[in-house]
Specification:
The chain has about 325 residues and is α/β, with parallel strands linked by helices. Strand 7, helix 9 and strand 8 form a beta-alpha-beta unit. Bound molecules: flavin mononucleotide (FMN).
Length: about 325
């Protein structure tokens, strides 16, 4: 008997993205979307075990609900990381089974693990043993020539057999050689049909679809055929899109961009005093006014200004003058 794990609202989530979804990004997104499930960047198990824990695991409770994504293939290490994730206050631990980068493949983890279902089952079983948090996986529909539906479903079944019941699926396969990680997010075709069929045939699993969603309607339409939709690049490049989807999903009011920036500027000043470089935090807001008058000036002024010595969160507050404030215009 497995113990029931906490149920999170997984209808909308923001994908784990290295060099994007760090704690500052998550704090900012949380100001725009109070309920969306957020994921960390992938953190290699070795970094968590041997590295600076505060650097790799520290976050602000205001970011919750947050899932910690781990990369690794050693059951003992992954179990330890899962326990640490719980101790540090995360809401979920997710195992990366989708990263095709050469470095990650050489380390024996990421998308490569789709070829090793028995090892993955061992890994997730050890993680489930080590924590009461939900253990989930983020995978692709296949890898290299293992790209038919039966292989995908068989892989899922093997992991579900070990006790995992939440599957986030990037709906394209990965090619382990010949494509860069970026190309691997663009070239293999999206096959949402695989993900929908998985949910139809295995209704007891929680299935979240990911890959290629750039518009609110298309994202929201997924909730029904599957349990949730995860946005990556679109949420980062156009964070207000996330706010729009969340507001539509929950029937809540849209946030005020300027109010979010004012609050983020306070956060930025507090972190600046702790030694975090300004640009590391301000880079996450560059897309906030996308498609609106002043968006270019907003981007440029902040990107350039954040590297100037002595700059602070005031840069964000002052840059609000450059953009039209659609919330005020509408009011
Ligand atoms: C810059 C960048 C970094 C990424 N890093 C990770 C990662 O750390 N872990 C992971 O599972 N996927 C990672 N991905 C893949 C995304 O989570 C997502 O699966 C992919 O971008 C497809 O979703 P999208 O079309 O909504 O962007 C990354 C994607 C990007 C663009």
């Amino acid at each position: 008997m497995t113990t029931p794990r906490q149920t999170l609202d997984r209808r909308l989530s923001v994908a784990p993205m290295m060099d994007r979804t760090d704690r500052h990004c998550r704090y900012f997104l949380r100001l725009l979307a109070p309920r969306t499930l957020l994921y960390t960047e992938m953190i290699p198990a070795g970094a968590i075990i041997h590295g600076d824990r505060e650097r790799f695991l520290g976050f602000d409770p205001a970011e919750r609900p947050v899932a910690l994504q781990i990369g690794g293939c050693d059951p003992g290490e992954l179990a330890r990381c899962a326990a640490l994730g719980e101790a540090w206050g995360y809401d979920e631990v997710n195992l990366n089974l989708g990263c095709p980068s050469e470095r990650v493949s050489q380390g024996g983890f990421g998308a490569r693990l789709i070829l090793e279902p028995a090892l993955v089952a061992e890994c997730v079983a050890a993680m489930l043993e080590a924590t009461a948090l939900p253990i989930t996986v983020k995978t692709r529909i296949g890898v290299d020539d293992r790209d038919d539906y039966d292989h995908f479903a068989g892989f899922v079944d093997r992991i579900a057999g070990a006790g995992v019941d939440v599957f986030v699926v990037h709906a394209r396969k990965a090619l382990l050689s010949g494509l860069s990680p970026k190309e691997n997010r663009e070239i293999p075709p999206l096959r949402y049909g695989f993900v929908h069929r998985l949910k139809r045939e295995r209704p007891g699993l929680t299935v979240v679809v990911n890959g290629g969603f750039t518009a609110a309607d298309a994202a929201l339409e997924q909730i029904g055929p599957v349990d949730g939709v995860m946005l990556g690049r679109a949420a980062y490049d156009n964070p207000f899109l996330l706010a729009e989807i969340e507001a539509a999903l929950h029937g809540i009011a849209l946030p005020d961009r300027a109010a979010a920036i004012e609050a983020y500027a306070d956060y930025v000043d507090a972190r600046l005093a702790e030694g975090v470089p300004l640009w590391r935090m301000t880079r996450h807001v560059l897309g906030l006014y996308r498609n609106l008058p002043g968006a270019r000036a907003w981007r440029r002024t902040i990107a350039e200004g954040a590297r100037r010595p002595g700059a602070t969160g005031a840069l964000l507050r002052q840059s609000l003058r450059l953009v039209e404030r659609p919330e005020r215009i509408a009011a």
